[in-house]
Design a protein that fits this description.
2 copies of one chain form a homodimer. The first copy, chain A, is α/β, with parallel strands linked by helices and about 400 residues long. In chain A, about 35% of the residues lie in helices and about 20% in strands. The longest helix of chain A has 16 residues. The C terminus of chain A is likely disordered. At the A-B interface, helix 2, helix 9, helix 11, helix 13 and helix 14 of A face helix 2, helix 9, helix 11, helix 13 and helix 14 of B.
Chain lengths: ~400, ~400
């Protein structure tokens, strides 16, 4: 779904962390005189960006890394991210502390790690964490089989059954490399997507992460089953994976989401960058200079990513009843002047340096270059975390 | 040439706008006690970025647009840009006012415009401007045939002769599209690069802008003649031009420069973006995840671009005798922590939001989020130019 386009002179009424109304500013002061007023002349307010695939903690152990990643993302207008790294507990703790919404992967893997001993143990720990976290309005969950080709048919059927029973999204890296596809053909006689279809995994809950090497009939299959594709353009480029057929994916009606993927391939957790790269790359890959319009790129980074996380009813757009996850962009920067059609400006000219305020569920978490949320305190995102991080690393 | 890598605890002594020494900080306070001292703990200082192909004014008429473009570039660590738009006079005036170094295109075209009536008139006006500007230490010039396929052999020979006589670089869009190549083959029986070779244009002064569709033997030809290629990755992607063979270009020893190109294709004048996109795209195009190392990308955006403008003796690196065009990057941002190998961080994680100070010839032009240079005044780059721009647009 394309965003409706920008409304001028409008107000967003927020109560209890939710959007109560979107209305002309002239009507708002009368109808909502009881609410605190934040005036944003020359700003554009967009839905909080949703990073549908991040391994926030890769590269550094545990919570400190995730806290830095949360700080980086909030300051860049990302109000929700999906994490599937090997320490959901510390990711959850860091996200909670930072005040960012997060979807956590309930891991499913066979290989023993410091986190879990085998397939059942991974699932048990993830589901237990989900049970303990029912009270946290910023936390949600999805099933995250780490490598489908390391799991048996029975294990993947179990994941499908769990997803159906608990209505959880399933995120897995799919058709990312030719090698992954060849191994699956050698072992199972079919390509990974066909295997997942046979095992009952294709459906609106399934998000194919990366989806670089997709044949036209496979894109049709994903569309028919209502699946999502989480496109990670910087990561795909950086790891030389190939060029995802994004124009064809969107054209077929598959839900497109965006992610920054792993820190090795893409150390910058920046969805402005991913929107722009996705839009540019879609044109280059399709040899079509209008392949992915700016509106579609913004939609992928907001509602599309929200849908891939099963959160499309609560976030991803500025609509009555949804959480007030909002990002204000100051349109007075030299690179955004003169005023004009806002969507191409947001995608092709704006960057996270233009983010002036960020709210998560109506709570101000970033303003004036500083995170507003303890324990990140009012630390300057450009200056302040250094000492803090050194202190933590040394503690 | 790869940058030497980062030096720790070093000082740069600057006198009269030039770099007098690069030395350990412990020695500097004694030897240069007479100089004003700027301490930059936790910062990395890089050479000012050089935008080797920008049409700063496209999209808006005249000097106001160029002034906004200069403001955007300075705030993003770009201390020099090459402009080849249809109003060198107003570009020169804006660059001078903003305090940014600029190389101006002496246009060579046949089609009449508001600027000039024919080929001779274009050259005459450009050369006259160059003569009038000999006193401006921030201005330099290059020859800019706007479309080689619209010029006759005699005209291009004249450009070559002028370049040799005045030792001026020649920048032209070359092998950007298959259509350009086909038209040249149909008209002249050879591909554009071969045509330029016959006409005596290939040499160290020639910079092939874009260079997307290059056969291996053409890359060899460019290398043999010491030419430069100005790579414009965002523009090439956005216009669906194809994928420049950047890894092969660098491998062959061709000097690589970077540019943002036209505002239509790439409205963001951001060389951090272009460095990162170039590095990522080179890997993807070459199917090689180590194709363009971070050091090579930074080198292209600094010394490589300086060389393409004939300015490699005065800018592009931090070396004794060169102009003090310097950019300080605050490495304490969440996305740049924890400290580690700086080159990959600069190219893959940093952005213009991390630029804390910018100097052009030793003069501070950007600090604390604000341009420091009248007539841009101490305007906040994120906030202040709006009113100013409105006032100018209305005047």
């Amino acid at each position: 779904v394309e965003p409706a386009g920008a409304l001028e002179e409008h107000a967003i009424a927020v109560r209890g962390g939710a959007i109560e109304a979107l209305l002309p500013a002239s009507e708002a002061s009368g109808r909502y005189a009881d609410l605190e007023r934040v005036e944003l002349p020359h700003h554009l307010v967009i839905p909080g960006l949703v990073n549908a695939h991040a391994s926030a903690a890769t590269g550094l152990a545990g919570g400190d890394a995730t806290l830095l990643a949360c700080a980086e993302m909030l300051a860049g207008g990302i109000t929700c991210f999906a994490d599937s790294y090997l320490s959901p507990e510390s990711a959850l703790e860091a996200a909670h502390a930072a005040g960012i919404r997060a979807a956590h992967g309930i891991l499913a893997a066979e290989h023993p790690s410091a986190y879990a001993s085998d397939f059942d143990d991974y699932l048990r720990k993830g589901l237990a964490l989900r049970d303990r976290t029912r009270e946290d309005p910023l936390a949600s969950f999805f099933l995250a089989p780490l490598a489908a080709d390391a799991l048996s048919d029975a294990q993947l059927r179990h994941v499908a059954a769990l997803a159906a029973e608990l209505d959880l999204p399933v995120h897995l890296r799919l058709h990312e490399t030719p090698g992954e596809i060849e191994r699956c053909v050698a072992r199972h006689g079919v390509r990974p997507i066909e295997r997942l279809e046979k095992l009952g995994l294709l459906g609106p809950n399934l998000a194919a992460v990366h989806g670089v090497h997709l044949a036209p009939r496979e894109i049709e299959l994903l569309a028919r089953h209502g699946c999502s594709v989480v496109h990670c353009p910087s990561s795909d480029l950086g790891l030389a994976r190939g060029f995802a057929p994004v124009a064809a994916i969107v054209q077929a009606g598959v839900n497109l989401a965006l992610g920054t993927a792993s820190a090795e391939a893409c150390p910058r957790l920046d969805l402005f960058q991913e929107m722009r790269t996705a839009a540019l790359l879609a044109r280059a890959a399709a040899r079509d200079a209008v392949a992915l319009p700016a509106g579609a790129a913004l939609s992928a980074a907001t509602l599309g990513s929200a849908r891939a996380l099963g959160l499309e009813k609560s976030i991803g757009s500025i609509a009555r009843g949804k959480c007030a996850d909002l990002v204000a962009i100051d349109m007075r920067a030299p690179g955004l002047l003169p005023p004009g059609d806002p969507l191409p400006r947001i995608v092709h000219a704006a960057g996270r340096e233009n983010v002036s305020q960020v709210w998560v569920s109506g709570r101000l978490v970033f303003a004036e270059g500083k995170l507003q949320n303890p324990p990140l305190g009012t630390l300057d995102t450009r200056r302040g975390l250094w000492e803090n991080s050194k202190a933590r690393a040394g503690s």
